[in-house]
Specification:
The structure is a homodimer. Chain A has about 450 residues and is of the alpha+beta class. Chain A has helices at about 1-20, 35-40, 65-70, 115-120, 155-170, 180, 195-200, 220-225, 240-245, 260-275, 280-290, 320-330, 340-350, 355-360, 425-435; strands spanning about 80, 105, 115, 125-130, 135-140, 150, 300, 315, 335, 335-340, 370, 375, 385-390, 390-395, 400-410. The first copy, chain A, has two domains: about 1-75, no CATH class; about 130-435, Beta-lactamase, CATH 3.40.710.10. The first copy, chain A, is built from 15 helices and 15 strands.
Chain lengths: ~450, ~450
C-alpha cells in the first residue's frame, strides 16, 4: 500500500510540474542544481537517509533522483548482458571546442542560445559529436562516465526495429505477415492481425494511450509488468512483457494512423525472438556488439522470465551508441564489414508516411515521419534520429557527415520538452561542421 | 504466502535429500542428468511452463534449477559491476589431456576415481588448472562458458578479507581495533567489540548458526535481507545487509572458537567500505580487476541500498578467478606489478589457529586452519583455498606451482559433500604435474 502511495505521488508530482511549466512557473531544479554529484545521492556506507535512492519505493523514477538512477539501472533491476568481445574500434579525436559557441534559435522563440547552454537546458548526462567518424566533442556530466551504461529508453526501439528490418531484408520475416503468424499467442490481442511493418512503423490501431503525464496511463501497467517499476503489495497485474502484450486490445483499424506506442516494439521483439529462437540480447550481440568494436557490454532490463524490455530497456555506453549511429551514417559499412544492408538504411532514410505522421500532431517535428523505429526529419540534411524519453538520442546527419549521441535525464518525459533546444542546436552544429569553420 | 510455501518447500527438499543420502539412497539427479542444457531450462520465447526458472518463486535456488541459475544471476537480481579495463593478460596454454586419467582415492574410502570422473561427481560447471602459470586443463559444462560469470558464493570472502589484510598492511585499518571503532552503528550488535582480525578469521562469538540444511537457520534471514532470496508478501524482516548485521547478537566471548559465519565477512565489508569511503565493487576494481588483466567484468549481487553481499555475492568468470589465484601463488607479483604485498600472502600461507579450527569438527579438513578468508590445509604442498558452497573454489598449491579454479552447482550445500572427491583429486593432479609426467 505504501508503495502505491509513493508511486502515484511521484507521477502526480510530474503532472504538477508540467502544469507549473505551462503557467510559466519554473519550480524544477535546473541542470546544475540537480546534478547527482552535487546532490550527493547514494554516497556513503550507507548513504544518509535523505540521499537514498531505491527501486522498491519508486524513488529512482522521480526527478531529480532519475539523474542518478538512469546511470545505475543494473543495481536497481535484473538485467541481461549484451556482451562485448575483442578489442574496441579506435575512434580518432579532433577536439572542436569552438562548438561551445555555436548559436541557435530555439523552436518557439525565446533568446538565441549557445550549444554549451543547450547542454544544461536539456539536462544532458553525456554527449558526443562525431564528424566524419572522428570525435570532435565529448562531455559527461553528473555521475555518467565514458565507460558507464545509461538507460537509453526508446532508443532501444531503433535497435530492435533495425534488427527486424534486417531480418525482413534477409527473407527471415515477412513484413506483410501478421504478428499472429509468428506468435500465435498474440491472435487474441490487438496485435494479432497487425502486420510486422505496422508494428515497426507504429501504425497499429490499439486501445491504448501512452501519456506520460497521466498516472493512469497503461504505460505504467506495462512498466510494472516488465519489472521496470515496482509492484505494490497484492499486485495482480500481468507478470511479464509477453503476458501483458496479450492483454492489449484493438481499437480501430490497423495501418490508418501513426500512434507511437511502446507495446508495438515489445510485440515486435517477441516476433523477432520467436522467429530467430534467440533472445534480443543475443541478437544484438551477434548483429551489432560483436561487429561494431564496442568498448563495453550493454545490458537490457528484463522481466521475471528474462525477457528483454524491447520497447525501452537497453542500457549502453555513449560512445558505443555513437558507433551504431556512425555505422548507420556509413550505409551499414563499418570496420570492414557490411553490418546492415544498404537497402535497409536507404529505406529508413526515405522515411515513413508523412500524412499519417502529421495527424499525430508532433509540434516540434513538422514534415517528419517514422520508419522502422527511426524518426525521419525530412530536413535539407536528410537527418534521422533514434529518440528516447527524457532526452536520449542518436542523431544522424548525412549531409554534414555528423552523428550525435546523447544521454539525458530531463525532468519531463517526452521529447516535446527537449526538441526546442535540441533540434535547432544539432542543426546549427551540423551547419557549422559542414562549413569547416574552426 | 505462496512464496513462503515454495521457499520452505525448497529447503525441506534439500533436507530430505541429505537424509536420503545419509541412508545410502541416491535420489538426486546426477551431473549428466541435471545438466541445465539437457534439462532445457529457460529456452524459448517464452520458455515452456515447466522449464521456467524465476527469482520470485524461489525456484532459482532449488536443485537442479541452480545449475542454470548460478550462471545467470544478473538476470535474477540487481547487481553492481566490478569493471574490467584495458586488454586481458595472456595466459599461455599447454593442454594436458593426461590429467583426465589421474587416479585418486576419495576421502572416506570407496573405489579409486579418475580426475575426469571427479568432475561429474562434483557437479562441475567449469574448471581450469594452471601449472606454472599456463593453462593445462580447462573444461566447461552445462550453460557456463569461458566469458560467462558464475556465482562464486563464499569465494567472495577470500577477496574481501584479502582486501582487508592489504588495508591492514598499509596501516589504513588496525586489525586489533574493534568493529565499532570504524562502524559505530555496530556498537549495539554482536560485532561491536569483535576485532577486525576476529571478523577476518571467523573467531567471533555470535548468537548465530549457519546450517544450510536447516530451513530455520538465520542464514536464510540474511539472504532475504540482502535480496539474494525472495521475500514473502508482508515481509517485515531487515531490509539490507547493514540493517541485518545490526540485529546479530553476541553469544560467548570473541576469539575463543572458530565458527564459520557469513555475517562476519559482511561486517568486515562494511568496515572496509566505511574506512575507504568506497563500495566493495570499486575497491575490487581498483585493487584487482584493473591490475590482473581480467577478461570480463565481474559483478556483485546487491541489496536495495546497492550494498554488495560481501559474504557471498561475487560473480565472475572462471579464468579471472584463476588469475587471482595465480597472483596469490606468485606472492602477489603478477603482470609486472606487486598487487598484494608479499607479507600479506605469507601471513595467509602460515594459516590461522589450528586448535580453534579443529574444535569446529570439519572432518574433511584435519589439521587445517582459516586465515583472512582462506582455508589453509597445512599439507606437505602448503596448499590453501578459497571455498564456496556448492563447490566453488580457488586452490593454490605452491609446491606443485599449480592453481585450480572451479565453479560447481552441487545439489547439497557445504564442502563436506564435495571434499571427498575434490581435495584428494586436486592433490593427485598436483603430484602428477610435479612429476612432470605426460
Amino acid at each position: 500500500m505504501k508503495n502505491w502511495v509513493q508511486i502515484v505521488a511521484g507521477f502526480v508530482s510530474v503532472v504538477v510540474l508540467v502544469v507549473l511549466r505551462a503557467q510559466g512557473v519554473d519550480a524544477v531544479l535546473d541542470a546544475r542544481k540537480s546534478d547527482p554529484v552535487v546532490m550527493g545521492w547514494m554516497v556513503g556506507s550507507p548513504p544518509a537517509a535523505d540521499k537514498v535512492i531505491r527501486f522498491g519505493d519508486g524513488s529512482f523514477f522521480r526527478f531529480p533522483m532519475t539523474r542518478w538512477a538512469f546511470s545505475n539501472m543494473r543495481q536497481l533491476v535484473p538485467t541481461k548482458v549484451v556482451a562485448r568481445s575483442g578489442s574496441a574500434s579506435v575512434i580518432h579525436r579532433v577536439e572542436r571546442a569552438d562548438l561551445d559557441g555555436v548559436m541557435f534559435q530555439p523552436i518557439g522563440g525565446g533568446e538565441a542560445m549557445s550549444w554549451a547552454q543547450s547542454l544544461d537546458a536539456n539536462y544532458t548526462d553525456g554527449i558526443v559529436v562525431l564528424h566524419r567518424g572522428r570525435i570532435v566533442y565529448e562531455r559527461y556530466f553528473g555521475v555518467l562516465k565514458p565507460e558507464k551504461q545509461h538507460l537509453a529508453f526508446s532508443v532501444t526501439k531503433s535497435y530492435v526495429a533495425t534488427l527486424a528490418a534486417m531480418l525482413i531484408a534477409e527473407g527471415v520475416i515477412d513484413e506483410k505477415a501478421v504478428a499472429a503468424k509468428y506468435v500465435p499467442e498474440l491472435a487474441g490481442s490487438g496485435f494479432g492481425d497487425a502486420t510486422i511493418r505496422q508494428l515497426m512503423d507504429m501504425t497499429t490501431g490499439l486501445n491504448y494511450s501512452e501519456n506520460y503525464t497521466d498516472a493512469k496511463s497503461p504505460i505504467w501497467e506495462l512498466s510494472r509488468a516488465t519489472g521496470l517499476l515496482p509492484r505494490p503489495e497484492g499486485y495482480r497485474g500481468a507478470d511479464g512483457n509477453y503476458a501483458y502484450l496479450k492483454s492489449v486490445a484493438k481499437a480501430g483499424g490497423h495501418g490508418e494512423k501513426f500512434v507511437y506506442l511502446t507495446v508495438n516494439t515489445d510485440a515486435l521483439g517477441w516476433v523477432v525472438s520467436r522467429v530467430t529462437k534467440k533472445p534480443l540480447a543475443e541478437l544484438l550481440r551477434e548483429r551489432f556488439w560483436s561487429k561494431l568494436g564496442v568498448e563495453q557490454d550493454a545490458f537490457f532490463e528484463v522481466d521475471s522470465l528474462g525477457v528483454e524490455f524491447a520497447g525501452g530497456g537497453l542500457n549502453l555506453c555513449l560512445r558505443d551508441m555513437a558507433r551504431f549511429g556512425e555505422m548507420m551514417r556509413l550505409g551499414g559499412h563499418y570496420r570492414g564489414q557490411q553490418i546492415v544492408a544498404p537497402a535497409v538504411i536507404e529505406d529508413i532514410r526515405k522515411g515513413g508516411n508523412k500524412e499519417k505522421f502529421a495527424g499525430a500532431g508532433y509540434k516540434t517535428l513538422p514534415g517528419a515521419s517514422y520508419r522502422s523505429g527511426w524518426w525521419v526529419l525530412h530536413n535539407e540534411h536528410g537527418a534521422y534520429a533514434a529518440r528516447g524519453i527524457h532526452g536520449q538520442g542518436i542523431y544522424v546527419d548525412p549531409a554534414a557527415e555528423m552523428v550525435i549521441a546523447r544521454f539525458a535525464s530531463h525532468p519531463m518525459g517526452g521529447n516535446v520538452n527537449l526538441d526546442p533546444t535540441t533540434l535547432p542546436a544539432y542543426h546549427a552544429v551540423a551547419e557549422h561542421l559542414k562549413r569547416g569553420a574552426r
